[in-house]
Amino acid sequence: xxxxxxxxxxxxxxxxxxxxxxxxxxxxxxxxxxxxxxxxxxxxxxxxxxxxxxxxxxxxxxxxxxxxxxxxxxxxxxxxxxxxxxxxxxxxxxxxxxxxxxxxxxxxxxxxxxxxxxxxxxxxxxxxxxxxxxxxxxxxxxxxxxxxxxxxxxxxxxxxxxxxxxxxxxxxxxxxxxxxxxxxxxxxxxxxxxxxxxxxxxxxxxxxxxxxxxxxxxxxxxxxxxxxxxxxxxxxxxxxxxxxxxxxxxxxxxxxxxxxxxxxxxxxxxxxxxxxxxxxxxxxxxxxxxxxxxxxxxxxxxxxxxxxxxxxxxxxxxxxxxxxxxxxxxxxxxxxxx
Length: 338
Hints:
Radius of gyration: 36 Å
Largest sheet: 5 strands, mixed
Order of helices and strands: HHHHHEHHEEHEEHHEE
Shape: flat
Number of strands: 7
CATH topology of the largest domain: Heat Shock Protein 90
């Protein structure tokens, strides 16, 4: 009872304070004594009446607010514009609309993330099973007696090793892209001579290309110049781009080119391979996306290389782009600050 009385006092404290203040003011005014009581009585009636009316209005506002909150909780509102309160609560209405709009954006974002997570787990499961099942099959065959057959035992062990290496590469790329997408990728930016950097780190790919019967060359400016970037991360980028070019090229050549464009350097990897269809161009940087699905089992790779490339180049404040013509080849390129 005492608690309820105290809450009532707190609820009407503004009116009690106002009443006392006016009463004190009247006591100081030059008002005839016989009229003072009449003024106080009249003011008391007005104050109580105003407080009663305000209390009723306040209760109506609270009921209206509760009704809106219930609709939001039960997801019965089609949009933030459906939230309406009476004219006395316009500021509150605007705040609730903004909060509801933000909640809807957050919900949609969470739904998109859930779809991405589900697709990612599905793809990871598939990509992990492929080498695991292959390794398991070769080892079971060896244990069932093939290990004593000199015609196949070494071949099966080499196949098992090949798939175990693929599995290790996949796991490494999964860790890498998880760190990148979690914002934990460490970068170390500095200026370095770009032409010398490319020739030093990537000339050996000429031997790998030669084993497939394709050429490999650099097109570099006569005078070297510095670019600004993370040398280790850019090494990952160039490795993935050159490896992909070699994988998907059967005849012709791979070209690594550097050109200077005002305050930036353009670096590209161009091939004469199978090319990419126009409908696939916007998706080649997605995780596990394969352009040539029919050959995806034949071609070594994790399906994460270009996704990693995209994130690293974006961390440099640039964008990885691709031009391609099916049957003629592709060119991947990006810009770096000089």
